[in-house]
Amino acid sequence: MTSRGVLPAALLLAVAAAALLLYTALPAAAAAAVAGDHSTLDKDENIQPLSTLNMAAARVMMDAGSVIHASPELLGANGEDSAWVTVNFTTPAPTDGHWIALFSPANLDLIMGGKQSSSSKINAAGEDEAPTGLPMAPIKYKFANISPSFMSSGSGNTSFLLINQRYDYAFGLFSGGKDNPKLVAVSNKIAFANPKAPVFPRLAQGKEWSEMAVTWTSGYNIDEAYPFVEWRMKGEENAKRTPADTLTYTRGHMCGKPANAEGYRDPGFIHTAILKNLWPNRDYSYQIGHELPDGSIVWGKSSTFRGTPSPGQASLQRIVIFGDMGLGQTDGSNELAGFQPGAQSTVDRLITDLPNYDAIFHIGDLSYANGYLAQWDQFTAQISPIASRVPYMVASGNHERTSHDTGGFYSGDDSHGECGVPAETLFSTPTVNAGQRLWYGVDRGLFRVCVGDTEHDWRPGSPQYEFLDGCFAAADRKHQPWLVFAAHRPLGYSSNGFYAKEGSFSEPMGRTLQNLWQKHRVDLAVFGHVHNYERTCPVYENTCTASPGSSPAANGSSPAVYSGVMGGTIHVVAGTGGARLRGFAGGEWPQWSVARNESYGYVKLTSRDQSRMEFEFVRSEDGQVVDGFVIEREYKDVLACIVDACEPHSLAN
Ligand SMILES: *[C@@H]1O[C@H](CO)[C@@H](O)[C@H](O)[C@H]1NC(C)=O
Ligand SMILES: *[C@@H]1O[C@H](CO)[C@@H](O)[C@H](O)[C@H]1NC(C)=O
Ligand SMILES: *[C@@H]1O[C@H](CO)[C@@H](O)[C@H](O)[C@H]1NC(C)=O
Ligand SMILES: *[C@@H]1O[C@H](CO)[C@@H](O)[C@H](O)[C@H]1NC(C)=O
Ligand SMILES: [Fe+2]
């Protein structure tokens, strides 16, 4: 880590301390202060590698002997939304401090704040005296010595995977390492055939089970071209067109740095069309497009999806849940190296597994863009093969929302100035309240899933508490037996180091949702944030309320079966999407912790009818089920009296 990384951290601490002092005077805000910043399980994971490039100190030192060239110049000629680009470069005095960075837009004069190297003051050493203060971070970078011949010959080549992110691109060759960058050569410009093309469609369930939202990104504002989705039920002759809305955000929407500074990048336009009156379990095809003023159409990719099962309907239904994925890496770019080491593996597994699940809940810490907004395009590109086929439901995590003094429950700045704006614009959620409070419920046949927002207050009396009470109550358990709560931070049970140390009531004000889970017989509570896998027994107030009826076979091939009345909620931590794995607290396992694993992977729930639900934790690496259990029960088991949640009744008859 550079010394540069240390200073802001010290500053942040000072700001946090000042904030604490201020908050103590304000009763309403006191809770936020007490909450503190519990998010930082390990400081390293908050350091977006792009932030380690000291672009503010960058100088322009064009060197006639240094050359960088990128090819091909025209990308996506056949409508592709990503393309490999080979960069070759040569410099007279190669060092291990030489690096190559991808910028967009390609106009580096503009990137350098209009400052031309000719107009800058050159000192005796031939250096431009004033740092150029590059106001824009690159999108990707690699050290030049990734090319084996570079150190010996001064020439090398390497390939980058580019996605269509609007605008054109150029590469810069820098010397001086990350701390003292000097731009010595700029490449030719390269561009996608249509930089504005509609890209990366992603689905989400709508407010009604029979609605599907289709969201995508383009370079077309509403006055340039009209966005729509063309779709039809499989086997139907006639396609329908449904108009989409158009949203964007600007630098002014960001709450701090680097999101409103060197990390800012124009997001283009985000479009959402809501397809309505879908038939359950029927297959649909759709295609995104924009109609130009002359009536011609710019088409995006087409894809297919299956209609959501209606509430209470018994049919094969499978749901995937995980948190904390981030970005994978396919081209060796340093901005991703080791940042979320398991993301690519999880994405690859989810693509392979596509025929075997129907919906995804990614419960917070989505891209870890951390204020480097171009990374959000990379994230939507990464998940598009999945999210264009099954609804991709998101929850808000600390890396999306947490930002100083912006109305969130926690202090800290884990969103690095984003304060939820990119995530909440790029993904559609069926929220029924003011958009920035990301809690909602969705029905999927035998399942009802209530998604909480741990970045806003959830204690009794808060709007979120009221919402969750209603959300759980809305499940018709006769027909829709499986009630799931999902949220980012573990509001229930985890024996990760930090949570174990803080005791079982670690999150602020304790497990204040416990009485709701108990009252409504919530079957399962799934959390992210902690980067490991852990499962509890059905638990209430630290005590197991049921044990499996049949013990697992010694060879692990038959899962534990909970049958009848469970009397408590099973808590699962699955922050295993890709961010660096974490261990567990040492010492004895708490009695409620029945399974643990340190693997990248995801939870999969499967049910076909009202009496049986299978739970699996699937390892990304090989698709193996490394943990699982089964719940078997009938409706009367849901109605049964359990501790602290007996309905009042009279003995009269
Ligand atoms: C890079 O490759 C192009 C052809 O793709 C070639 O014309 C150019 O001379 C090469 N430049 C360097 C610096 O190797
Ligand atoms: C890229 O560099 C390797 C050596 O690192 C060399 O063998 C190869 O020919 C180069 N390819 C191009 C297209 O320049
Ligand atoms: C594991 O045990 C179960 C029941 O004890 C048995 O049916 C199964 O064949 C065993 N599987 C393997 C791979 O040995
Ligand atoms: C995770 O589960 C797999 C499969 O049962 C096992 O081989 C592995 O040792 C477990 N790893 C950890 C760290 O618990
Ligand atoms: Fe988190």
UniProtKB/TrEMBL annotation:
Signal peptide: 1-31
Record-level GO cellular component terms: extracellular region
Location of this chain's protein in the cell: Secreted
Keywords assigned by UniProt, alphabetized: Glycoprotein, Hydrolase, Secreted, Signal
Pfam families: fn3_PAP, Metallophos, Metallophos_C, Pur_ac_phosph_N
The EC number(s) this enzyme carries: 3.1.3.2
Residue ranges of domain Purple acid phosphatase N-terminal in the record: 201-306
Residue ranges occupied by any Purple acid phosphatase C-terminal domain in the UniProt entry: 568-627
Domain Calcineurin-like phosphoesterase: 318-533
Catalytically driven reaction(s): a phosphate monoester + H2O = an alcohol + phosphate
Residue ranges constituting the Purple acid phosphatase Fn3-like domain according to the UniProt record: 68-194
InterPro entries: Calcineurin-like_PHP, Fn3_PAP, Metallo-depent_PP-like, MPP_PAP, PAPs_C, PAPs_N, Purple_acid_Pase-like_N
Gene Ontology MF: a single term: acid phosphatase activity
EC class name: hydrolase
Protein family per UniProt: Belongs to the metallophosphoesterase superfamily. Purple acid phosphatase family.
Subunit composition and interactions: Homodimer.
Name of the protein this chain belongs to: Purple acid phosphatase
Organism encoding this protein: Leersia perrieri
